[in-house]
Amino acid sequence: MNIVFYGQNGKCEYSALIKGCEEDDYMIRELNFSEVRNYKDVNPAVIVVDAPIESINEVCAITKFNTSVLLVVDKIPDNLTVRADICDFITRPVNPVELNVRIAAMAKGAKYRTSLKRLSVTDELTGLYNRKYLHHRLDAEMSRAKRYGTPLSCLLIDIDFFKTVNDMYGYDWGDVLLKKIAQMLQSLIRKEDILTRYGDEEFILILPNTSEDNAFIFAERFRHDIEKMEFIPANEDERHPITISGGISSYPFLENVQEDSNTIIRYAEHALYAAKKQGKNQIVEFSKMNLDY
Asked: Is the dihedral of CA 75, 83, 119, 189 positive or negative?
């Protein structure tokens, strides 16, 4: 957990007073106060600012801190506004015990906030991102694709006959299957790809800088992997065969049409529906539906 001290000339005498706690080890950094506006570059959990109050006033007037900020001051100011997740003051001369207690409390608060943010965008069963996160990121990736003229593809995957698994073996084994497929997908994707659980047995994969045809190659490889996967529920002697169907769409698709995250997902849903209608266990590209059907 990063604790960053911003002081004059890149030094802060109080950084040497910090001790780690049982729950977390601190990574202590000292930077020049002039760099405090670029605090996001070092991803701090807590910022400690040791600078003249006039300088602090100037920075706080134009900077919003998405982290915890501890200000070292001669006296607590009456009219200083600090926009931060948490803001606190400690007065000079600094008491080492008080300093460590305050930083520990702020670090714990930062840890809880991070956990809550992660939970708000994460599917509890699979650990994948959820639909809320999907739409937020997809809009951003589409804007980036438009700006740089790069392709963006969306792959919607559905487990064939998933209800049969639940009916035959129980919902616990359905959960086992969902987690297994989520893990297999995670092992294949790139760092920049966005994998989410979209519905009960549906997953969406957003592939930046990937054409629809290249997304199809990826999807076909994964479909074959699923065909070969070992899924043997308890008390069964043989593997239960599992297959998936998929629909792929790409952005941009139609000229002079305002396409957004809902649009590209809807295209993928149409392609998935076509794959199901054609007999399941196949991948359909949305751009080729008019040619094939």
From this structure: negative
CATH code at 2-118: 3.40.50.2300
pLDDT per residue as tens digits for the range 148-205: 999 999 999 999 999 999 999 999 999 999 999 999 999 999 999 999 999 899 999 9
pTM score above 0.85? no
Give the whole-angstrom CA distance, residue 35 versus residue 279. Answer: 60
Catalytic residues: 201
Domain ranges for the chain, please list them: 2-118, 131-292
The four Cα atoms 257, 262, 265, 269 give a dihedral, to 10 degrees, of -100
| Cβ–Cβ < 8 Å for 164, 170 | no
Nearest to 14 by CA among 64, 51, 41: 51
Q: Model confidence over 108-125: pLDDT tens digits?
A: 888 888 777 777 889 999
CA–CA distances in Å: residue 120 to residues 20, 43, 116, 133, 193: 29, 20, 6, 9, 20
Same fold across 2-118 and 131-292: no
Report residue 71's pLDDT band, with 50, 70 and 90 as the boundaries: very high
Q: Is 116 helix (H, G, I), strand (E, B) or coil?
A: helix
Q: Which residue has the tokens 């606190």?
A: 88
Q: Which fold has domain 131-292?
A: Alpha-Beta Plaits (3.30.70)
CA distance 25 to 265: 42
